[in-house]
Design a protein that fits this description.
The protein is an alpha+beta fold. The protein is built from 14 helices and 38 strands. The radius of gyration is 27 Å and the shape is globular. Bound molecules: alpha-D-galactopyranose.
């Protein structure tokens, strides 16, 4: 397992438990070629795979058709301009106007561990649990060094890839595209799977057959976006949850991205991922370095479940950090849907008192506590407490909340400024905008130019002051509009193509700084609901607000799409009011609790308006969260039935890593008069262990439950749910 180099054949071998990746170096030119990625094979010499129905130009003689060759050869990091007409990963312009580049092998290094990516979120590991290959390539005429980096992790079918580009020449060059990863593979009649969406409807699964030409997804919003998540997978046409091959890519970045598949005329398949080249142009002066963000490659030969398990385990162990990495997350009450902007200390405390009595652990004060903010038209940037609403400030409120035995958290939107704010009046140039045009508002706000150090200093001083002003244990960091009319007052005209990426680096720097100064803080990222639910954010916040759609039935689909890639432990999931503020649907309190139980559990409604019966249900819901929360957080997730597919019911489960407990969440969305009730087949149990079902009291072996299945309980009515637990019997195997 790991990484080695076959000196004789000049082949790099990357092996994970179930996958192999082979990289070659062509004898004649020294091109870095892609030879194989797929199911684990013992062989290193898979060179024959290079010649997929075409011949090396040498056989044509000196006058042969070199273009036939370069446009077909499978490459690890294709460049542009020299006859490979497929999508390039690297595109360069020189001062003399040249737009061509070509990379040749120079040397390589294999080391234990994984170097940090400066200023960027990335997976990490120790010398014991991961190793890294760096292949150094060179473009001699440009004097450019390009380092392709590959890391593999103990026990995981994942490879982390990124690229470092160093300008060792004397002339200035411009990178017009610098993607992070490429996979050139034979066409296997695959389907393409992506996660698309919109506000309050994030991460819907979209599967379609791959065809000729380019097809893909991306974001130019300046954030990873509601519309497309930075995830793309190729899967067998026949692959299912449990069977078939899946090749997935996920981008550890929160800004503009491109994920594209291209099938060429020769049916060669190229899959690329990286920063979106539109709006990107990075000037690299002599001796300067550009580091791309990281792309995670996951291979599964056991369908989508295998892919999901790898992403979840990788992210829980090698991406999520901080005090809450391995800790249960507190149950919370958030006042947003309870009060919106209309609150005062008394109102908040009335909710907090009911919450404390019910056993909720954390009170979160959402938007509206600062400046003159009584609606969303004002005051972003003026992070001083509105003492009319909250006399005594955050300190007094926090003290009162703590006196009730709860922790205290707040909402912040540090990346933004309202035109109606003291900050904007003093520094209009702090906002990203083209001074020759009218500012483009969204939610009556502008985006601060975090590519600028002075703006970051100003923003950080405000964050620091707020977090030091009271005992604050949690921050919901929001970001409520995309970037548009993007121009920085601090960069010259020929460097404006750097603003989007510099902005993201600025956001990352701020979050890193905040977590360094306040290491015990629990950070939850949020962006207009789930617009920035991506691995980049997970590096800073162990949990992310999944969606502004808090309605339990819509949430089934949203959480299913999210959990395809991201751990359940990262999904903020709250019980909200009925009729739902998003879609007016009315669902039972118990079902809302059940749907939220799978994620970071909380409430987002006015507890003082609940009926006694509903209030009476809260302690039971919290008990379920405390009893089973760890299994959802740390266990293996299985999708047993999908409401998105069957239109009637939804079943998921989480199985503890030691296979002693399986928690199954069943939601009957629509009640149907059927002759036979559906049977579900649990997964991930130990075949020979005996398990007792808490629902029916029945005892069966793991094999019995998994292969004979569980008929779903009959319930009369729509939107009903059940928690079914299979518990291993003591002293039995
Ligand atoms: C965004 C968030 C919400 C809430 C509001 C406050 O829309 O997604 O949860 O915090 O902002 O303005």
């Amino acid at each position: 397992m790991g990484i080695c180099f076959d000196e004789k054949e000049k082949i790099f071998c990357l092996d994970t438990p179930h996958s192999s990746y082979r990289i070659g170096i062509t004898d004649e030119e020294g091109f870095i070629t892609h030879l194989y990625y797929g199911r684990r094979v013992p062989d290193s010499n898979v060179k024959q795979l290079l010649w997929r129905g075409f011949e090396h130009p040498a056989v044509y003689g000196k006058t042969g058709d070199q273009l036939q060759y370069v446009t077909r050869i499978p490459l690890e990091y294709p460049t542009g301009g020299l006859g490979d007409f497929r999508m390039p990963c690297l595109a360069i312009e020189t001062e003399s106007g040249s737009r061509t580049s070509q990379l040749y092998y120079r040397t390589h290094r294999i080391c234990s561990g994984k170097p940090k990516l400066c200023g960027l979120p990335a997976t990490f590991g120790t010398e014991q649990d991961c190793s890294t290959l760096e292949i150094e390539c060179v473009d001699t005429s440009l004097q450019l060094t390009v380092i392709l980096s590959y890391s593999v992790f103990e026990g995981l079918d994942a490879i982390a890839r990124s690229v470092r580009i160093e300008n060792n020449g004397t002339q200035r060059i411009r990178l017009t595209s610098a993607l992070s990863a490429c996979l050139d593979m034979p066409n296997k009649n695959s389907d393409l799977l992506t996660l698309h969406g919109s506000w309050a409807y994030e991460r819907m699964q979209c599967r379609r057959p791959l065809t000729w030409g380019k097809q893909g997804i991306g974001s130019r919003y300046g954030v990873s976006s509601h519309e497309e998540n930075p995830f793309i997978a190729l899967m067998d046409h026949t692959a299912t949850q449990t069977q078939g091959e899946v090749y997935a890519m996920n981008f550890v970045y929160s800004g503009n991205f491109l994920a594209e598949a291209e099938m060429s005329q020769q049916e060669q398949l190229r899959l690329v991922m990286g920063i979106h080249p539109d709006g990107f142009c990075w000037t690299l002066d002599s001796c300067e370095v550009f580091q791309t963000p990281e792309t995670i490659l996951v291979y599964s030969c056991s369908g989508l479940s295998g892919m999901t398990h790898t992403f979840h385990d990788l992210y829980r162990k090698h991406l999520i950090r901080g005090a809450f990495k391995d800790r249960p997350r507190p149950s919370l009450i958030n006042n947003w849907e309870a009060t919106y902007f209309d609150f005062d200390t008394e109102k908040l405390l009335s909710i907090a008192k009911t919450a404390a009595k019910s056993g909720i652990e954390l009170f979160v004060l959402d938007d509206g506590w600062f400046g003159k903010r009584d609606d969303d038209t004002t005051s972003l940037g003026d992070w001083t407490v509105n003492e009319t609403k909250l006399p005594g400030g955050l300190k007094r409120l926090s003290d009162e909340i703590h006196a009730l035995g709860m922790k205290f958290g707040i909402w912040l939107e540090p990346e933004m400024v309202s035109p109606d704010s003291d900050l904007y009046r003093a520094h209009p140039d702090y906002a990203l905008q083209n001074p020759e045009r009218e500012p483009i508002l969204s939610r009556t706000q502008l985006v601060l130019d975090l590519s600028r150090k002075d703006v970051r200093e100003c923003v950080y001083a405000m964050i620091h002051a707020v977090l030091s002003s009271a005992k604050i244990e949690y921050v919901k960091w929001d970001m409520n509009r995309p970037l548009a009319n993007v121009q920085s007052a601090a960069l010259p005209s020929d460097r404006q193509g750097e603003v989007y990426h510099r902005y993201m680096l600025g956001v990352y720097e701020l979050q890193e700084r905040m977590l360094t100064d306040f290491p015990d803080l629990l950070l939850e990222n949020c962006s207009s609901g789930g617009r920035r639910f991506d691995p980049g954010m997970l590096y800073y916040s162990p949990q992310i607000w999944t969606s502004d759609n808090t309605e339990a039935i819509d949430r089934l689909k949203i959480q299913e799409g999210t959990a395809l890639v991201y751990p359940l432990s990262s999904m903020g999931a709250h019980v909200a009011a009925c009729p739902s503020h998003t879609n007016s649907r009315v669902t039972p309190f118990a079902t809302r609790g059940l749907v939220s139980l799978c994620g970071c559990f909380g409430y987002e409604l006015d507890l003082t308006k609940l009926t006694d019966a509903e209030i009476g249900e809260i302690p039971g819901q919290l008990e379920a969260y405390h009893t089973y929360g760890d299994i959802f957080r740390t266990g293996d997730y299985y999708r047993l039935a999908s409401f998105s597919e069957n239109g009637e019911y939804d079943v998921l489960s989480a199985v503890s890593k030691n296979k002693r407990t399986a928690v199954i969440v069943y939601v009957q969305v629509l009640s149907q008069q059927k002759r036979a009730v559906p049977v579900i087949y649990p997964q991930g149990l130990d075949e020979t262990t005996m398990y007792r079902c808490t629902e029916s009291g029945e005892i069966l072996s793991g094999a019995g439950w998994m292969y004979a299945g569980i008929p779903l309980p009959v319930m009369k009515g729509d939107y009903l749910g059940k928690l079914i637990v299979l518990e291993a019997m003591e002293d039995q195997k």
